[in-house]
Fold:
Amino acid sequence: MRVALDAMGGDRAPQVTVRGALLAAREGVEVVLVGDEEVLRAELRRLGGSLPLVHAPDAIRMEDQATQVRKRPQSSIAVAMDLLRRGEVAAVVSMGHTGATLAAALFALGRVRGVERPALLVEFPSQKGRTFLLDGGANADCRPGFLVQFAAMGLAYAEASGVLAPKVGLLSIGEEEGKGNALVLEAYPLLREALGERFYGNVEGRDILLGTVEVVVTDGFTGNVVLKLAEGEAKVLLAWIKEALTSSPMARLGGLLARGALRRVKDRVDPARYGAMPLLGVEGPVFVGHGSADELAVKNALLRARALVRAGLMDRVRQRLAALHV
Structure:
């Protein structure tokens, strides 16, 4: 069960990607590095490690257009997707250009039957465990039917992650059925009909962190705003806590006593803990991480990819889509 890593993807590739791959390999993940062979061999020598390589002389940079993937078949992300298409690897992980990863996946793998638009799933920590939100930014504009498909894929992912009987909430500005914009008002009856008892109803922004439901669906524009707000708020709150705990000698003493507990809080909100977001709806397990990811995020993304392949993620997605009551 090999996992292909786009080793040239990300702001700090290949240094961070190779280090993260070596960390994952030490935990038993069979990682295949995809990228410029000469560059990757030099980095492996520097770190004193060894991993299988697949040569890809080109790379899509963060400033490039996603549509360039079609014209650059030797780019690392395109070569990685081709490995997945041919069945030579079980999943692909990239910390590179999100749009290019989506384009490469669609071009090489195609969509799962019943999916009009793939979606990015974002994982949030909550008071009750975890909340999964779709779409995290793949589709800025959505039709009501897309949200039904997102819900089915979100349920499949939650179940593959070990959640029992997950519920789906529709993100809105109020809990009542009649509240929301045109998209929400049209999607509500479709979700109720398609999901039956698995549909909770409307949820508000606060419910994501409260853990009111396990899966939240929304359009990609709103979902990406929620994601960036949550990431920014976590950074600011941690900075305020650090500032408060260094504001006086007594505060510093209290900070030392609470250091272990505060570290656990930081770990819960650290994006590196989640590694990468799955791109659901394409015909193969594909995971996309932050361009600024560190080696811990790369390692966790590879571990998560392996775990979800083992849990039968793709079969669960297909079954959930086929079972929609629409």
